[in-house]
Write a structure and sequence with these properties.
- This protein is of the alpha+beta class.
- It has 2 domains: about 60 residues, Winged helix-like DNA-binding domain superfamily/Winged helix DNA-binding domain (Arc Repressor Mutant, subunit A, Orthogonal Bundle); about 120 residues, Umud Fragment, subunit A (Ribbon), CATH 2.10.109.
- The protein contains 3 helices and 11 strands.
- A hairpin with a 2-residue loop joins strand 8 and strand 9.
- The longest helix is centred in the first third of the chain and has 17 residues.
- The radius of gyration is 21 Å and the shape is elongated.
- The C terminus is likely disordered.
Length: about 210
């Protein structure tokens, strides 16, 4: 696929996020507001370039017909494992890739495979793959958000994030585990949860005959 200009990519990324959240396309006026534009012409021009470059499909003049085209990709990188229990060593390089070509996810999404059961009450079980979005501004993180957080000198864990002053609490969703407490400067949030992928292996069918 052809490279996008900065303006085209800004609109494309916004469209992907909007459609993923609302499950329907925005209006031209909504796109104008999001891009801080006073005229529909620049929006329509960008849409036409996105269509020509095959990032979207749409009928010119009808914003509600916009569809995100799924680009060919190598999948989401699984960067390692994330503890849903005790802390594990931080993730580094990608070790495998998860094919999510039919799912709309935020730009730069990465994945981690869950180890442990401390988030089981959030329906996140051992063996699941969690999709994480890198955090652009830690100061905008809301209390209660599920994050992948690295605790200095220990490792990385998947927990709900709470901040009070200069103290961070990482809370599990399983009564068997205690919260992790640390100074704010000892905690690095590496991603925010955007999705959970769970594979399913059906039980093998019995070949024996009932008598």
């Amino acid at each position: 696929m052809e490279t996008l200009t900065e303006a085209q990519k800004e609109l494309y990324d916004w469209l992907v996020d909007y459609i993923r959240q609302h499950q329907y396309p925005p209006s031209i006026r909504q796109m104008m507001r999001a891009m801080n534009l006073k005229s529909p012409a620049p929006v329509q021009s960008r849409l036409e370039h996105l269509r020509t470059k095959r990032y979207i499909a749409w009928t010119k003049g009808e914003a509600r017909t916009i569809q995100i085209m799924q680009p060919s990709s190598e999948g989401v990188p699984i960067l390692g494992s994330i503890a849903a229990g005790y802390l594990v060593e931080p993730f580094t390089d990608a070790i495998e890739r998860l094919d999510l070509s039919t799912v709309l996810l935020p730009d730069k999404t990465f994945a981690l495979r869950v180890m442990g059961d401390s988030m089981i009450e959030e329906m996140i079980a051992e063996g699941d793959v969690v999709m994480m979005r890198p955090l652009s501004d830690p100061n905008l993180l809301k209390n209660g958000t599920i994050v992948a957080a690295r605790v200095e000198g220990h490792g990385t864990t998947l927990k709900r994030f709470y901040r009070r002053g200069d103290r961070i609490t990482l809370k599990p969703a399983n009564a068997r585990y205690a919260p992790i407490e640390a100074q704010a400067d000892q905690v690095q949030v590496q991603g925010v949860l955007v999705g959970v992928w769970r594979g399913y292996d059906p039980p093998a069918k019995s070949t024996s005959r009932r008598r």
